[in-house]
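pipeline/complex-builder :: batch 7 item 3
reading input block
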Amino acid sequence: MLNFDLYTPARIVFGRGTQGKIGELIKPHAKKVLLHYGGGSIKKSGLYDTVVKSLNDAGIQFVELGGVVPNPRLSLVHEGIALCKKENVELILAVGGGSAIDSAKAIAMGVFHEGDVWDIYNEGLDIKKALPVAIILTIPAAGSESSGDTVISNEETGRKYGYGHPLLRPLISVMNPELFFTLPKDQVANGVADMMSHIFERYFTNTTHVDLTDALCEATLRTIITNAPRLLDNRKDYDAWAEIGFAGTVAHNGLLGMGREQDWACHNMEHELSAAYDVAHGAGLAVLTPAWMKYVWKDNPDMFVQFSINVMGVSKGIRDKEEVIREGIARLQSFYRTMGLPQTLEGLGIDGSRQEEMAQKCTGHYYGKEGAIGGLKKLKWQDVYNIYQIAR
Amino acid sequence: MLNFDLYTPARIVFGRGTQGKIGELIKPHAKKVLLHYGGGSIKKSGLYDTVVKSLNDAGIQFVELGGVVPNPRLSLVHEGIALCKKENVELILAVGGGSAIDSAKAIAMGVFHEGDVWDIYNEGLDIKKALPVAIILTIPAAGSESSGDTVISNEETGRKYGYGHPLLRPLISVMNPELFFTLPKDQVANGVADMMSHIFERYFTNTTHVDLTDALCEATLRTIITNAPRLLDNRKDYDAWAEIGFAGTVAHNGLLGMGREQDWACHNMEHELSAAYDVAHGAGLAVLTPAWMKYVWKDNPDMFVQFSINVMGVSKGIRDKEEVIREGIARLQSFYRTMGLPQTLEGLGIDGSRQEEMAQKCTGHYYGKEGAIGGLKKLKWQDVYNIYQIAR
C-alpha cells in the first residue's frame, strides 16, 4: 500500500424529498447564490420550482445561469464568473449532472483567478481559493458530486481538459434517487459505464497489498452490475436507483483509490473521443475499456484474473489464466451490451480517419511533448492507436 | 435504503513517516495546541520527540497533558478544559489510541460549554462549537480518528457514556502503520474485535435494499479477518497493519452504516462490563457478540445466513439455515480464539454476581426508565440478562 491522503468533506444528503431541504442546508454558508443548470428539464420536472421555493423560504437570494451542455463549455464558465463577480455571489448551486457540476466548479475557482480560468486547466496551476459549491444531483454518473475534479471543453481549441483540487470538493451534495426516474435509457447506461470506469481506473494497478481497496472496489462494481439492469425495465425502481446513485458517489470520492497507483488511461483516451466527436463520455468508455483490457492484461495477468473471478463471477475452476481473463472481459462486454451501450467506435459513429491524431493528442505527442498515459501499463501514442484499432 | 446524511470530513494522512508532518499539517489551523496523550509509551518509542520537533519546526506553541488511561476519565477531561481555557489553546492534538482521542474530543467541546461537560454526555445536549482535534493514531481499534463519537467514564458515578456530534469529527488524522509495531498481542486482538464490532453494529439490520453497504461491510470484515492473524506471528508486518489500520477507520467513519437501521446492542452491553469491571472494550465485545448472535438470529435468519456465507465463508451448499448460521457463529468464535481473545465472561474474570444489575443499567431500567437497546431485535433488560447468561 502506498502512502495516501484521503479527504472527502462533501456532505451527502441522500434520499426521498431531500431536494426541498436545499435552502436550509445552504443557509449557514451563503446569503446569495448562483443557481447553475442545463436546459429546460429541471423546469419541466418541477425541480426548478422546488429549489426556488426552498431558497426563498430560507431567505437566500439568487441569480441564475442555465445553458450548461454535455461536455460543458468554457464560454459559459466565463459568463458565470462575470456574473458571480458582478452579483457578489457567495456559493454556487449546481442543479444537474456532472456537466453542471463541473461547470460550477470552474466558475467557483475562476472567480478568484486573475486571468483566464482556462490557464488553470491548461497549465495545472495551483489555486488558493474557490467559492463553495452545493449540488442537487439529477444524473448519477460523473461522481463530480463528491470529487474535487472538473472537466471543461474549450470550444475554440477543441480541447477537453480535467483539473482537480481539494478546494473544489463540494460542500453539500443532495441526492434523491426519485430525481433519476425520468432519465432516458441511454443516459442511464452512459452513467453506469462512467461510474464503473471510475472504479476500474483505480482498481487496475500494479500496487500490491491493497486488500481493503481491492475488496471495496469489487463490492461497489458488483453492486452496480447487479442493480443497473433492473433499471432497463423499470426506471422508477427507487431501490435500484438508490444503489446506483450511492455507488456512483463512492466510486469517485477518492476512497477506492487510496494507497494505489491509479491508471486513468481509458478516461484519457475517451476525452479525445469526446473532444473530437462530442460523443457521450460513458458510451466512449464502454467501447474503450474492453479494448484497453485486451491490450494490457498481459502486463499483470493476476490482476485481471482477480477481476474476472471477483467482479465478473468467472469460475475459479477454469485455472487457465488467459481463459479466465478472456471470459471476464467477454462478460463485461456482454453487460455493456445488455445495457444497450455501443460495442465499437463504429457503433459510436466514429470512423478511422482521426485515430492517429487522437492518439497523438492523448499522449501529448501531437503538441510536441513525448508523454505516456496509464499506470498499470504506460501507453505511448502508438499503444493508444493500437487500442483505438482494437475498438474499431 | 433509508434516507441518510453522510459527513466524513476528517482528512486521513496515511503511511510511513507521516507523523513527522504533523506540525506542517496543523499550521494552517492553529498557533497553539494542547498535546494530549497517555502514559510513557510515546516517550519511550521516540514518537513524543518526533511530534515536539515537528511542532517546533512549524512554529507551533504547545502545552501538554498526559495521563489518559483506557476508559478515559472525566477528571482528566476537566483538567484539560481548564488548561485549554487558561492557555488559549486553538486545537487539541491527541497522540494515542481511542482513549486519548475520546478524551481530546471531550475537552474540545468542554472548552465552549458553560457548566460541567459531563452534562453533555448525560443529557445528550446539542453542542454549538468545539475546538478542532488532530490525531496521531498509535492504536487502530476505536475508529475515533474518523468518527464524531467520544466515550468517557465518570469515575465518581461508575457510569460510562457515549456522545456523538458532527463537530467532533477530527480535522486531521495521521496514521502510520509502523507506529503499531510495538503493540502487545492483547491490544492487537482487542483492537481487531472492536473494529469488527463497529461493522457488525451497522451490518446487522432489518433494513432491506442496502446492497452497497452490505457489500462494503462484508469486504471490510473479510479484509480484517484475513490480515489480523498475520500480526500474531509478526507484529512488524507493515502490509497487514496497513490493511487493519485503514479498515479500522473505514469501519467507523459512518459510510458503512448509511441508509441502514443500526444496532449497537453489543456496544451498549459491553459498556456496562467496562464500567463495572474495567475490562478491555474489545475483549468484552468478543465475548458478547457471539452470545448476542445466538440470542437474536431467529429474528432475521436471512441476515445471518448472508453473514455466514459472505463473511465467514460458510458453504452455500449446506442449505439448512440454522446449520449455516451456527457454523458462521462458530467460525467467528474460532477467529476470536485464534486471536487469543476470551470466549466467556468468566474468561474475562467476571463472575455472575452483577449481571442483573448490569442488564438493568444497560436499558435504563435500573434508573427508572423502561428502555430497550438494539435495532435488529429490541432488547429489554431481561433479554440483556439472557445474553449475559449465554456469555457466562
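note: The first helix of chain A runs from residue 22 to 26.
queue -> next item
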